[in-house]
Amino acid sequence: MLSARAGRKINDRYVTDYVVFDLETTGTSCQMDEVVEISAVKVIDGKVVDEYTTLVNPGRTIPPGASAVNGITDDMVSDAPTFEVALRDFNDFVGDMILVGHNIHMFDMKFICRDAMRYFGRTIGNDYIDTLPLAKAYLPEMRHHTLSDLADHYDIDSGGAHRALNDCRMNQQVFERLGEEMKHPSEAARQIKKCPRCGSVMKLRNGKYGVFWGCSGYPDCRHTENA
Asked: Residue 201 to residues 103, 183, 221: CA-CA distances in angstroms?
């Protein structure tokens, strides 16, 4: 929902009603790049009830490197709506539900909040859950925590990865499985030290005055503790 106040990142929490969303973009910079696809999956009582997806005309040429990742070309988006239209439709689809996504704190939320302000003079007020820090906290034995890695870990079909709707469907199943991890954490997960501010994993770091605990969410979260 559009709001004067940005939504909050929710820590260490599973919810049964939410909307998983994902973006594909022309690149990784929320200052320079544009959205070329947005998709969302609505979940009620842990079950998928609706989906929304559209390609987006970014008003610029899609770099070959981006097309190589997501398969989206200039020809595919030539007749697609602008992101102003797509974002309004997405906002109507989501309403005031909690958003869920993988690495959305550092990526997707920055794009949609930027463009909500650009087009509507308001930000996105929905609270949100990022499955990346959840996975790092509850599956510490895994070396990597990409969405595809998590899908492989849970034997979830990862076909069609890097297209927004397929990633939403995959992420929805991953979030449900992480919900089970939160209810019954492993011994390794119970030993993980978590940031009390943002829920990210705390890591031992070396500083000017010696070793300290620092949040892995730095620089967005600068919480530290004495070691």
From this structure: 14, 18, 11
